[in-house]
Amino acid sequence: MTQGLERLSLNQKTTNSWSVAEAVDGCVRAGIPAIGLWREPVQAVGVAAAAKLVRDAGLRVSSLCRGGFLTASDPDERTAAVADNRLAIDEAAELGAPCLVLVVGGLPAGSKDLAGARQRVADAVAELVPYAASRGVRLALEPLHPMYCADRAVLSTLTQALDLALTFPDVGVAVDTFHLWWDPNVAAEIARAGERILTYQVCDFLVPMPADNLLARGMMGDGVIDFAPMTAAVAATGYAGDVEVEIFNADVWAADPSRVVSTMCERYLALVAPYLA
Amino acid sequence: MTQGLERLSLNQKTTNSWSVAEAVDGCVRAGIPAIGLWREPVQAVGVAAAAKLVRDAGLRVSSLCRGGFLTASDPDERTAAVADNRLAIDEAAELGAPCLVLVVGGLPAGSKDLAGARQRVADAVAELVPYAASRGVRLALEPLHPMYCADRAVLSTLTQALDLALTFPDVGVAVDTFHLWWDPNVAAEIARAGERILTYQVCDFLVPMPADNLLARGMMGDGVIDFAPMTAAVAATGYAGDVEVEIFNADVWAADPSRVVSTMCERYLALVAPYLA
Question: In this protein, which residues make up the domain named Xylose isomerase-like TIM barrel (chains A, B) (predicted)?
Fold first, then answer.
């Protein structure tokens, strides 16, 4: 492990073209001790094989991304979504992931009933909580930037995600700088979240945004976010977990993944790690 | 005036290619009793001439867009911005606009100090308040969608804009469906705003967003917003002002403005007006 990288985790999405084996190898070569896995590449190799790859390399799993998409109003779609989330919980357990990140879903096609969608998320999470507890996996509700409210996640603020998480004894939240940096209350809400913070994810917010707003995440230092205040606020809660770098970005994905990883380590050391102490 | 349009106002930006004279004429032809003016087209014809055009046509001015851009840290830029806002206040007074909408500005180029930018907005508004009061113009702080936090407005929620407005006796807020529809607290914050609501602006939020996110505003009915709850919440405060339709959208701007206006009237009558009662 490289000095200063003790809490860094490579979220697989940052090196989107790499298989689990390649990403594990990339972490080992870079001295990164943890990895945030995604279901699709894990399923491509098989959950047991992915778990073995990570374990044999001596890496921690920081999270599994992602469950969620729980807003369907159609009963069959809803049943399928809940079943798929149970499967994701099973996968997280087998991988040794401490939490399953939930991107809760947007408005169903054609619907404008935002309050209804939010209520269905609360209901579905309630349904999943006992199963997650039985498998030793914690659910991490992820508030997404409000620009994704309609198509990705009707949980739009940390306040809202935390209010829902706190209605259960053991549900937590995912804190991601990209989604939350603009929120005037974010430092106070991070403090309120305290031990409910299950994962801390960092990347930058690019201005101007790329044409596809799903790919507006950038390498730390390439956008407008000051990582000091949010990172210090997370550290002040006593959060001792990993810091995942999760970047959706066409240019990052087109670059050599090994170079992306080395840039990620440099930027993390310069812009994030100093505020974790 | 056409039945049902008694409170509709054409924000000039919706018919972006029209001069003040053309927009005034378009309102008269469509039976729209009010207009939301923009500084650039007003200055193009001259403030006195624009005021006369509106007055002679028997239209109300619902607002003047826009002042703001008050986040500069450079002293000279800041002085220039405050002076320009004084000029905008003069223009609003001469036009008979009840309020000047302030889009407060984003991060200065190269800066990541969001808290500092927000403080400079508060300081600049404090500086402008006495002048606005002396001219009989109210300042309307407009919270913009969080996706514009870095480049347009560091006021990102109604809560935040209202908290700032309430530190002064006579400053208000602009409530715009596009910017606020995602906010889980928006109905409660509209209620809290009460008489501080100086303008209510409507347009839709398009999904997927166009490549240029500044042009993501759509005609009511073309996006994901349910106008009922926000409109009813605004009406419940006793708001008796005009309802402006303000659309930034390349397709709308490329269309025949007269057709845009007639579509706007139809959509307003179907999707907004019923909830004003």
Answer: 28-251
